[in-house]
Amino acid sequence: MEAFYALATEDYHQLVLAADWADLLATHARDGGRLLDVACGSGKFPSALLQHADLSAVPELTYDLLDPSPFSIAEAAAQLRPPFLVGRELNLTLQDLPEDAGPYDVVWATHALYALPPHELDRAAERLVEALRPGGLGLVAQATSRSHYLTFYDAYRTGVRPATPYTSAEQVRAALSGAGAEVHEQRIEYATGTTDRAVAQGFLQRCAFDDGVTLEQMESAPVLGELLAGCRGPDGSYSFQHEVALLWF
Q1: What is 2-248's CATH number, 3.40.50.150, 3.40.50.720, 3.30.450.20, 1.25.40.20?
Q2: What's the CA gap between 177 and 169, in Å, rounded?
Q3: Distance from C-alpha of 141 to C-alpha of 73, rounded to nearest angstrom
Q4: SS3 call for 43
Q5: SS3 assignment, position 83
Q6: d(Cα 237, Cα 231) in Å, to the nearest integer?
Q7: Which residues, other chains included, contact 71 with Cβ-Cβ below 8 Å and sequence gap of 6+?
Q8: Could you tell me whether strands 84-90 and 132-143 are parallel, antiparallel, or unpaired per DSSP bridges?
Q9: Count of CA atoms in the C-beta half-sphere (13 A) of 56
């Protein structure tokens, strides 16, 4: 995970740079407002906000954490500082979010829905939309089908071992629209990279959720090896291209 976040922390930094978060949160969060972080992971997005954005004018928000992993919820809760106040700890999936959990002033899922089973995507989108109060702020930040995370995983599935494909931003947008949301899309592009092969290996292993495959095995695998060769510079360094859709609703 340390190797993964040596590069992936930039995902959340770029999200902070993509919007005026102080204004958005101050506008949409009322006194005693509530926020839901879907598939909160280890809290990298609120941590990035607290580090890179001036939130001093944002009113206090009760910050509910939803994740199937109790460990992730505990990790994310430990990152929260004012204006974010630790709220409910919802140890479940978005699909199972109780009907009485909302309404929330702010709901977001940042790089969180990749492993969502395709047959459950519509239900998850419905719960996401239903949890947001009218006039509230909703956001899903998800890599597009052209981005590193999805192109890499598709090549891994073809060249290393079969697995369920990741969910793309395009699929999430369609599901949100199908759930009745009016979606505005904003795209950001950036690159991450490293000259450290140990970091590259750990990052790619986490992208594949497979810590048993080495970088050398990935580089020599059919399909995946060709993709990685295109990410590798003459000096052996790696650069990964990202395209992320911010789906505001």
Answers
A1: 3.40.50.150
A2: 12
A3: 19
A4: coil
A5: coil
A6: 8
A7: none
A8: unpaired
A9: 1
**Run of H or E including 159:** helix 148-159
Three-state secondary-structure class, residue 166: coil
Determine which helix (DSSP H) or strand (DSSP E) holds 247, and give its type and residue range. strand 238-248
H or E stretch at 97: none
Tokens of 188: 């950001």
User: Among 213, 249, 245, which Cα is nearest to 228's?
Assistant: 213
Global pTM reads 0.96
Q: Summarize pLDDT for 204-228 with one digit per residue, the tens.
A: 999 999 999 999 999 999 999 999 9
Cα–Cα distance measured from residue 123 to residue 179, given in angstroms and rounded to the nearest whole number: 8
* Separation of alpha carbons 220 and 41, rounded Å: 31
